Amino acid sequence: MAAKKPEQALVEQWRDILALHARTQCELDRALHGHGLCASDFEVLDLLAEGTAADCGAAYRVQEISERVHLSQSALSRLIGRLEKDGLVDRVMCAEDRRGVKVVLTARGRALHGEVRPVQRAVLARMLAEAD
Fold this sequence. Notes:
By secondary structure, the chain is mainly alpha-helical.
């Protein structure tokens, strides 16, 4: 029975992490909805915006994005399609490998990211502070 207590504590800690993630994801979705985005949409925009200050636009292959935002390749392709349709990202030919396609943030996407970033960061700060 003594071996069960540490194991149970580990499981409870894991479930607390999952619950925090679920609550935070829901809060992000609610906060971003008014801007026409969901949390996953913002994560992609945020990743693409990371390189914009230094090189006027970061470009990532879909596979590279999926590794960073934890979405399946097919879910990410649909998400990118929606962002592209909304004029927030473009798909461009990869200069190094003409078979490859990279995703870049458009000026409209950069502007929306700048507008929404403080909203997303405020939700993260509030939700993670509540977890402490």
